[in-house]
Write a structure and sequence with these properties.
Number of strands: 5
Shape: globular
Structural class: alpha/beta
Strand order of the largest sheet: 2-1-3-4-5
Number of helices: 5
Oligomer: single chain
Length: 160
């Protein structure tokens, strides 16, 4: 695939940010994910639903993968791009690899649990069968701000 950062990625991330905002209704951390096909058409979108579903695996990325597999009728999602507002954790990185998603674009880094460069790099580990192209930091400030505002409100503090 080999694309570099582009205006299209900013547009896709804007859609993922809008999806992430839906998570806060149920008190979930605002993370949004959208899987796009090779033509740039969305296959499925999701946001965190751990609180709403009381399901530890209901991360935005996992839900987007599940919904995309259902839409395509296949567990493999080649020639797709996952756009997510926060660096995927180890569980989500595993789901991305299992679904054979070749490209991930993410916004904010997650220094505590991110598994795509922060704590480890499960998607680009050369010991695995195929590396995933990773494009980090797309709309990073907007993605980080959305999370800061959420956690600030959660703690009862004013936000920026």
């Amino acid at each position: 695939m080999g694309l570099t950062h582009s205006k299209v990625f900013d547009e896709w991330m804007g859609r993922a940010l809008a999806e992430a905002s839906r998570a806060t209704v149920s008190g979930d951390v605002p993370v949004g994910a959208i899987l796009f096909d090779a033509l740039g058409q969305p296959i499925a979108a999701a946001h965190n639903e751990r609180e709403r579903e009381q399901d530890a695996t209901a991360h935005a990325e996992v839900l987007a993968v599940r919904r995309s597999c259902a839409a395509w009728g296949s567990w493999q999602l080649p020639n797709t791009t996952l756009v997510v507002t926060l660096e995927p954790c180890a569980m989500c990185a595993g789901a991305i690899r299992a679904a054979r998603i070749p490209r991930v674009i993410f916004g904010a880094w997650d220094p505590g649990a991110g598994a795509v460069g922060s704590t480890c790099d499960l998607l680009r580990d050369r010991a695995t069968t195929a590396e995933v192209e990773v494009i980090p930091g797309v709309c990073e400030e907007e993605c980080s701000r959305q999370l800061r505002v959420f956690f600030s409100r959660l703690r009862g503090q004013s936000s920026d």
